[in-house]
Amino acid sequence: MQIVILGPPGSGKGTRAQIISKIYGIPVITTGDMLREAAAQDTESGRIADFYMKKGELVPDDIVVEVVEERLGRPDVEGGFILDGFPRNLAQARALDRVLKRKGVSIDAVLKIDASTDSIIKRLSLRRSCPRCGAVYHLKYNPPKKDEVCDECGSGLIQRDDDREDIILYRMIVYEEQTRPILERYENMGKVRELNGEIEIDEIPGEVRRVLGDLA
Ligand code: AMP
Fold first, then answer.
1. Which CATH code fits 2-26+79-115+178-215?
2. Mutation test of ligand 1: which of 11, 31, 54, 170 has the most ligand atoms closer than 8 Å to its C-beta?
């Protein structure tokens, strides 16, 4: 099963991707995490990525496509995968088609998630992330057991530079201008299925099974 998840920042893509991964046993490919990792390793492309990520802008296509292409070449994606955060514009969508064509597979479904501006800002401004293992918390709805410390690996949690309110608003504009147009392309291909970004976390597995059940 090859799945793409599209939605504005903070709409709950990552949470749903993890739940789908557990239900169907396929890996999640999260470009934001991979780019943050490259930035932390201070490679040349990581430094460029960091420059754009801090401002809330899209990282240049050549860097992102290379990262995704390398990841899709690994054996664990043979049974399927979930793309979280890619493609983010039309050029990336076309590049993805080319990569998948070479592999002899195609996208089965594009999951579209929407959430109100108000809930996005509430979610992202209280989001805390673990810089070491990538676990994500929400200070109100999903707090760590010990204040500001990761339950999984014990590292200190951080607020991402781009989870500040001014940058969040800018990332939402980038989504509307560059990413939303891809939905029309996938709609014309009959691939789009909708997920509700406002439901409670314990309702998500049921919704996922309803929406993707026919593909399993
Ligand atoms: P995310 O964690 O998905 O919210 O992504 C955080 C930041 O990483 C974005 O604001 C972009 O700067 C960068 N990024 C993630 N995925 C992509 C992508 N597919 N294309 C370009 N930039 C990306």
1. 3.40.50.300
2. 31
